[in-house]
Predict the structure.
Amino acid sequence: MIQHIKSAERYHADHGWLSTWHHFSFNDYFDPDNVSFGALRVFNEDIVQARSGFPPHSHRDMEIVTYVLSGELEHEDNQGNRGHILPGEVQVMSAGTGIAHAERNPSDAPLHLLQIWIVPRTRGLAPRWEQHRFSPDERRGTLLPVVTPAGSGATHASPSKLQIDQDATFFVASLAPGQTVTHAAEAGRRAYVFAISGALDVNGVALETGDQARITGDATLTLTARAASELILIDLP
């Protein structure tokens, strides 16, 4: 079954310095029927204006994945980590027992990113932060696993340099018009597809830019680009 949610159906808030689209209940937006999808708790698409950002704030017991689409993200936390994340780079922060961090756009151009929260398997782990750059060539014409389960986990993808404490795998792809990729899911699993740009069909369901598909019970996903497209697919328990 595929639940197709169009871009315009997402919750949107414009705070001046931040324009944000929430796929699930978050911050000022609450819908008891739209809190999570399996272990996927938050999926936000953010545009952060130049020289602004999120002041220091805390997290705990959450696996937080950030994918920068354009611009530059600066991260600094109370564990001594500091990084600059550029387009195509992925950041993983395991909040564990608690971590405080600030995120800002240090540049003169807008920052466009996805931030995704996954509920971990285990509470109370030590906080952890890391980032990695994946080149455009690596995701061209294929589903590239950029985040994979730590320890024993899903077997459908090679381990990535970035791992989280959950049996969830993040794939990104860049497809040319007419190009097709497939994803085979194990029985009982979920999949989540977001059309970052372009237009694509997911098992015959037409997604446009900003659309999402929440998928249960489909063993094989066939994704075909109707235009040059960027997408993210999350395989979930």
About this structure: The chain has one domain: 2-236.
